[in-house]
């Protein structure tokens, strides 16, 4: 159970994320007895709900999306009693004053002790406005004389390096870095947290986790979904901004960083920042050789026909936005010199699959001649979703009188291994922010560096219209240009 009492305010409370993820997460934190004894939840949005109609809406969301199924009485009524709603325009100071009154009332009624967690789950264009208005209404962290104030900010943090810096300037006028929790839900996924355990709680992996033994690393975040009614947002974002700059970059940092000096939030985030800083900037003149982009056309997923990207609502009919991005990066440090890191993410691919694959070098000498023809390089795969586990590919003798060698795999699966189902990332992350543990949140220096890494690609892709779009069929493996990116290095992508 979380120790500190606290009120949590969700801005954008009538939105999709609130329905599907955030309110079900709050409810499950309550069911699991993880919420503090003294808590209150406030929704803030433009939609004109009353407290009661908001609670009713939230009950519907929980019934539909919670991992624990239908909300049960009498616990739901008790929980709903802690939920209230403030309606108003995001740029109206009076609405924030109403919010302040509600929070003060909560301190009295629920004993929330002046501790406040603000969660910004609105379109990013509103982030700076909300932060400014909180301060105008006396809700800034330095104006809070009784408790602590923290803010969770959803992605994307900026749409490019300059806008991210501008947003940071605004947010940091009101909040100190220690009070800012930039959320990246990938960091809340169990197998992502396990990357550190695998590397630093075992003795056998770390000695080979370097250029001497590793041939290359592939990081994949492949989805089968399209833009899911978010065409307006996505057409101005694209795969590089939507997935690579944040989720995939965080995976890269965790897999490639040096061992932190301790498990504290800053020690870990120092190492993540350091390794991202060592990523070699892509030469602007070579962007087209070091990257590949794609856009899906109509196809079929699981036997069901799906439309092409340009046919999706709110997408420009001649859109130049990529729904698939692949980037080859090099890390200029002692551990990783000359080891390519291949990153890719795309929508409407054949399967949902997020994983990190470490491919090791070939054996130095082939002892088995023809018998060893089925022999392959060792590969360690950290499976993030939908399978959660670790798989090690190695070579073994095929039973029989002859010496035949073939590649086999040794698999660990979290579900069967531990006999539990992982909690959704948002539960873990909201709980951590309430506790004041920022380990799984992205610090500003890493966000800035990640933008720095993708900027040459973003600039070049935006400036060059891709005449070949759309260039991959929904339900496939992505564009041929992506295969060529690896083929140029004598390598292949793992199958999606
Ligand atoms: C979000 C992106 O951050 O992550 C979405 O905006 C994407 O476009 C989603 O679909 C993927 O998350 P997950 O957890 O399903 O891999």
Strand order of the largest sheet: 8-12-13-7-14-15-16-17
Structural class by helix and strand composition: alpha/beta
Give the bound compounds: 6-O-phosphono-beta-D-glucopyranose
What helical percentage do the residues reach? 25-40%
Could you give a short account of the major beta sheet?
Answer: 8 strands, mixed
Number of helices: 15
Overall mean pLDDT score?
A: 96
| Terminus-to-terminus distance | 40 Å
- The backbone outline, from C-alpha atoms, is globular
Strand content: 15-25%
How many beta-strand runs? Answer: 18
Organism: Vulcanimicrobium alpinum
Catalytic activity: D-glucose 6-phosphate + NADP(+) = 6-phospho-D-glucono-1,5-lactone + NADPH + H(+)
EC number: 1.1.1.49
Pathway: Carbohydrate degradation; pentose phosphate pathway; D-ribulose 5-phosphate from D-glucose 6-phosphate (oxidative stage): step 1/3
Structure description:
- This protein has 496 residues and is an alpha/beta fold.
- The chain is built from 15 helices and 18 strands.
- It has helices at 16-31, 51-65, 75-81, 93-110, 127-136, 161-174, 190-200, 231-234, 239-256, 265-277, 287-290, 414-418, 425-435, 444-463, 480-487, and strands at residues 6-11, 39-45, 83-87, 116-120, 149-153, 180-182, 214-222, 291-294, 296-297, 299-301, 304-306, 324-329, 341-346, 353-360, 379-385, 389-398, 404-413, 472-473.
- The strands form 4 sheets. The protein has an 8-stranded mixed beta sheet, sandwiched between helices. It has a 6-stranded parallel beta sheet with strand order 3-2-1-4-5-6. Strands 9-18 form a two-stranded parallel sheet.
- Strand 5, helix 6 (161-174) and strand 6 (180-182) form a beta-alpha-beta unit.
- The mean pLDDT is 96.
- Bound molecules: 6-O-phosphono-beta-D-glucopyranose.
- Residues 155, 185, 223, 225, 242, 354 line the site of 6-O-phosphono-beta-D-glucopyranose.
